[in-house]
Amino acid sequence: MNIMVVLAHPVRASLTGALGEGARETLAALGHAVQFHHLDAEGFDPRIGAEELAARRSADPLVERHCAELAAADGIVIVHPNWWSQPPANLKGWIDRVVRPGVAYDFAKDDAGKSVPVGLLKARTAVVLNTANVPQAVEQSLVGDPLEALWAKVVFDRCGVKDVRRRVFAVAATASPEQRAAWVEEARALVRDAFPAG
Q1: C-alpha to C-alpha distance for 181 and 186, rounded to whole angstroms
Q2: Which residues have a Cβ under 8 Å from the Cβ of 122 and sit 6 or more positions away?
Q3: Residue 65 class from Cβ within 10 Å (0-12 exposed, 13-18 middle, 19+ buried)?
Q4: Which of 147, 173, 185, 191 has its CA 20 to 30 A from that of 50?
Q5: Is a pLDDT exceeding 90 seen at residue 16?
Q6: Dihedral of the CA atoms 125, 131, 136, 141 (nearest 10)?
Q7: 105 Cβ partners below 8 Å, 6+ apart?
């Protein structure tokens, strides 16, 4: 299988970075072809300009490469921290520029003549690994779970990916080395379960 892994965190040695690297290593060990992207290391520009928006394609070869890989992916892994109940800016920009009409979804008319989204992605399963510095129960009580809504409902459901598996690892800032290692192993297990060796 072709699996696209997208990591968004400026510090590769962070827990988030370790989760992304663990996912990449696990998928490769299972025999999958892995397209691994560390957005910060690649210098991915999150800004979408008026010309790109109107053209529905980008003059940036990196963006076009990501689009092609996303369209060809049999599975997707997204790894990022929870910052203000949102992904980091470069990952939000990645959604804007890569998970776009004509690549990940498009619009069609329903029987009533209304425009409805139609998913275009080949992938049927996505795994989202989040780190957070607020316990999930606290986040839920304060604001619900905006990241669950973003990934499962707004992004992947629209694009035709119905099997979305998400795990939050918290509290990252105070985790011991032993806890971090255990979380990385848990992430590896989640990825193995989602994308078994073929």
Answers
A1: 9
A2: 71, 72, 73, 74
A3: middle
A4: 147
A5: yes
A6: -100
A7: 99, 117, 118, 119, 120, 121, 158, 159, 160
CA distance 38 to 6: 6
Strand extents, DSSP E, the chain: 2-7, 33-38, 75-81, 105-109, 115-119, 125-132, 163-170
**The pLDDT of residue 83 is above 90:** yes
Residue written as token pair 């040695």: 13
Distance between CA atoms of 40 and 82, rounded to whole angstroms?
Answer: 16
- The string of pLDDT tens digits covering residues 17-45 is 999 999 999 999 999 999 999 999 999 99
3-state secondary structure 61-113: HHHHHHHHHHHHCCEEEEEEECECCECCHHHHHHHHHHCCECCCEEEEECCCC
Identify whether the C-beta of residue 73 lies closer than 8 Å to the C-beta of residue 3.
Answer: yes
CB count, 10 Å around CB of 113? 6
Residue 174, C-beta contacts closer than 8 angstroms, at least 6 positions apart: none
The closest alpha carbon to 103, from 114, 82, 117, 83, belongs to 117
Per-residue confidence (pLDDT) for residue 198, from 0 to 100 = 74
113 dihedral zone (left: phi>0; alpha: psi -120 to 50; beta): left
